[in-house]
Design goal:
This protein is mainly alpha-helical and 100 residues long. Helices cover 82% and strands 0% of the residues. It contains 3 helices and no strands. The longest helix is centred in the N-terminal third of the chain and has 39 residues. The protein is elongated and about 60 Å long. It starts with a helix and ends with a helix.
């Protein structure tokens, strides 16, 4: 590790960039899976949302966030955003397949 502040800043930013890339790839894979769930739900006339599962996920992720020393309110906000987007996708899939 260098003692030059600008070099250290650049090193930290490279790490941040790597984490950002990993997050994008992880989210892409997660959404590929949730798209498959949406197709399955539409095919078998299941509702796009599952509030009980969503609540369990929020509780589970809040606990994980606390264990990871991450603000659990922030983690919940991120998860709620993702859940809303997934439900939107499921509704769109349902509409496209005519399973209304």
């Amino acid at each position: 590790m260098t003692t030059d502040p600008q070099e250290r800043l650049n090193e930290l930013r490279r790490s941040i960039d790597n984490f950002d890339a990993a997050l994008i790839h992880i989210l892409a894979e997660r959404f590929r899976c949730t798209q498959a769930v949406g197709k399955l739900k539409a095919e078998f006339d299941m509702p796009p949302a599952d509030p009980a599962r969503e609540q369990r996920q929020v509780e589970r992720l809040r606990k994980l966030a606390e264990e990871a020393d991450l603000d659990s309110d922030f983690a919940e906000a991120v998860l709620n955003f993702i859940i809303k987007e997934v439900i939107r996708h499921h509704e769109a899939i349902r509409h496209r397949t005519g399973a209304e």
